Amino acid sequence: MPVQMPDINLVTMLPEILIAILGLVLLLMSAGQDAERGRKVNAMALAGVIAAAALTVVTANGSSFGGFFVVDPFARAMKLLMLLATGMVLYMSMEYMRDQKFDGGEYQVMTLMALLGGMIMASAGDFVVLYMGLELMSLSIYVLAAWRRDDVRSNEAGLKYFVLGSMASGFLLYGISLIYGTTGTTLFTGVATALSHGHISTATIMGVVMVLAGMSFKVAAAPFHMWAPDVYEGAPTSVTAFMAVLPKIAAFAAIFRVLLIAFPALQSHWNPLLQLLAVASLAVGAIAAIGQTNIKRMLAYSSIGHVGFILLGLTAHTGLGYQSVVAYLAIYIFMSVGAFAIILLLNKAGVGDEIEDYKGLGHKRPMLALLMALFMFSMAGIPPLAGFMGKLYVFMAAVQSGMMMLAVAGVLFSAIGAFYYLRIVKFMYFDQPAEGAFGMELDFSARAILTVTGVVMLVWGLFPGALLSWSGASVKMFQ
Amino acid sequence: MLSLVTFLPLAGALVILLAIHNDKAAKSFALGISLVTFVISLRLITGFDLGTANFQFLEEAKWLPEYGIAYRMGVDGISLPFVLLTTFLTPICLLASWVSIQVRVREYLMAFLALESFVVGVFCALDFILFYVLWEAMLIPMFLIIGVWGGPRRVYAALKFFLYTLAGSVLMLIAILALGYHGKTFSIPALMDVPLSFSFQVWLFLGLFASFAVKVPMWPVHTWLPDAHVEAPTAGSVILAGILLKMGAYGFLRFSLPILPDASRFFIPLIFGLSLVAVVYTALVALMQKDLKKLVAYSSVSHMGFVTIGIFAMNTQGVEGSILQMINHGIVSGALFLAVGVVYDRMHTREIAHFGGVAHVMPVYAVIFMVFTLASAGLPGTNSFVGEILILLGAFLANKAVAIVAATGLVFGAAYILWMFKRVVFGAVVHDEVRAMKDLSLREFALFAPLLVMVFWIGFYPGPFLKIFHASVEHLLKQAAVVKTGAAMVAQF
């Protein structure tokens, strides 16, 4: 019997290969003694991300390693979002990293490795590949979270994330083993075939639940969100910004793939769970954030709330619902990156992370405060900003699927949540600044990032057509 | 044309943001823009066909065609008066802020112009999503106006205003989405003809009601209003009482009655009940107020109770009276807030007890204040008389008991407003601060002059105003009488 070779189609993996090689090269470079190496490494990392994005756009659809690695419009869209998010965060953190002496080069290497892991997750066609991508991403981010070695909080953040993250990975692995045990395969399509014919045992359902729990941890959906506030608060701000975007996109990509490709037959089992996660996340995101005094913690809860909205869109199980998820993720990236860019800028100028520290920003730096207000109103979902359009589509999908009560819960929590976004606006505009506060220079990268994200808030809020047709095209395959 | 009226102020705000850095120039520019907007909006009247109930000056552009969402604008006889009221009051508001706003003047002007744009847009929008976007967007400038330029408890008031309104609005969003999904379009005129089952109508009505009732505001969700009014700067109060409150009642007229006629009829007792409580109870509350602005604020709730009674009387007199009364209330309560602002600018207090004998030192002011006080009390010859009598007539035809209880509200209304006037204006001068007050400046007189003209014009000759919305109201009443439920749509007149 001839040994069948799996089809190895490296062309489909070009973006990942590029990022992997680049990461290794940069690792070598960062071992050098060159004083300017940080700048070079950063420039190369950015160039690599842009090149990978270009490659992602042009690579053809296809699969490799016998379906282990899949490139389809959805995977490409999610990878583009990840590359975009990573690129923006790297670019805006450049000055901050130099300031904090992070720019030895290893930092960028870890960032690229996390990106690579995320990209593999988006393309995974098999549980083992999915797990590998997830671990690569997670381990890199654990390290990044603890990057400030001499800071207790940063160490705590890294350790906490690591311990809890490993637990979650354990759940995921256990779930995968149960699935494998009952279906005899780890390939998504194989699992789907097995489940659509055979008898569905309790063990399989246990496996699905475990897998879902592991994924929920990664997106910080309540009740698996406990780590997020502490880790967001303790990690260096540039890492928090990164953490707020990349793992979310990657994990949502994986959730899509696992639930819709591997487990469509079990939808009646996992969909109620998803709804539960959505409502719990909305509630935690809206209510727990109110008491926060630290802006990074607050944004952690806010991101939990956003995850709730995204899950709500997913549970609709219509084209519109899937589309709203991708659109919401895209909008979320720009909102988060914009808000964190401002926090980063203020951090660099010695402004703390307490919300009180933002007192009077509107008096001293009107443009900066205006932008921050824009991001906050957008996150709160007030039209005519992009965040509103994201929510509008989620609610539209929910209403279309007849999930009235969930939609009502969603809007009520969004109204409650508006309070804490308004609090930031309140501090910026309604309170008087301290003497001599906010005297920093805006460098070019900050200006560029803020201009882009600010403009996107308005453009996607007023003319979301292009974003929606793009996100619609990316999820056509799931309908 | 409508887009020009709607977005000219916003464009003006952008110009101030980017090009005008001098406070004085910005003030003149903003006033100029708002006057130009007003003049352009007058051309809407001259070009308006009074004989038809159709939407006019229609505009349509693609927005999100896959979901039936488009940029649709148009006015009929019901929305046109509100557009004009907005463009009429905004220059007055800007002029009223000329001296009293001293800090961050440019931002203030930008917020105000943006607010005007959004509000005019709300009245012109013929697409439900467009309507919602503008309806919500309006919260941002108003939040900032109260929060940045308001009084001592402005933060509390601003947050309360924002969250109250938002909580109501988001429920409306769900109703809008359900309606739009059901009707396969978000075009408001098209949705008026979509048949809907009764239970669906009831849910939709409640969703819309949550939003409109907060905005009107109806008892018991009115509690944000006194706070917002007291803390807002004078011009903010004028725009709040004059225009924003009308948005809620406009919502009932534009959406609830024609799109959900069966549910609207079903909920008449609820609306009447809440409105009567508002009319009588808040009038009594107003009687007890020590703060001038709070008194006028509660009087607004009471007067808006009349308006909702008139709307749900669902007859020509009631609805026409309501629309006219909303215009009247916009003029009269706006003028009363301005009048309070005048003495506040001089004394920096609004405690009724700190005044007394103002007539001795400010005779011109006292006369003008008196006219608006009497107008608020509904004296014949002033505009409110016409509106209130029409509403009571309509209410009497619909439900005699309601009319009788509502009429007592008029008595209480006269009581609190006249008693307030007596304590502030008459009597001997006891406080030295009062003695030091100067009479109206030319600028202040200019604020009141157009409002005075309107009080007497509508008071003596309301015909032309009623004619604007007569055809549309008749059409609306036909729509409100339709039985939409079931497959066969039977019209009952």
Written overview of the protein:
The complex is a heterodimer of chains A (479) and B (493). In chain A, 75% of the residues lie in helices and 1% in strands. Chain A is mainly α. Chain A has a domain at 269-479. Chain A has a two-stranded antiparallel sheet with strand order 1-2. The longest helix of chain A has 32 residues, at 152-183. Chain B is 75% helix and 3% strand. Chain B has helices at residues 2-18, 23-46, 80-100, 105-124, 128-137, 139-149, 154-183, 188-191, 198-215, 224-231, 234-259, 261-266, 268-287, 292-313, 316-347, 358-361, 363-377, 383-398, 400-425, 432-435, 442-460, 463-481, and strands at residues 56-64, 69-75. Chain B has a two-stranded antiparallel sheet. Chain B has 493 residues and is mainly α. Classes of the chains: A mainly alpha (479), B mainly alpha (493). Chain A binds chain B through residues 362-363, 366, 377, 382-384, 388, 392, 395-396, 399-400, 404, 407-408, 411-412, 414-415, 418-419, 422, 425-426, 429-430, 463-465, 468, 472, and chain B through 63-64, 66-67, 104, 107, 129, 132-134, 136-137, 139-140, 143-144, 147-148, 154-155, 158-159, 162-163, 166-167, 170-171, 173-174, 177-178, 181, 203.
Tell me briefly what this model is.
The complex is a heterodimer of chains A (479) and B (493). Chain A has helices at residues 14-29, 37-58, 73-99, 106-123, 127-145, 152-183, 188-197, 202-219, 227-234, 237-262, 267-287, 295-315, 319-348, 361-364, 366-380, 386-400, 404-430, 444-462, 465-474; strands spanning 62-64, 69-71. Chain A is an all-alpha fold and 479 residues long.
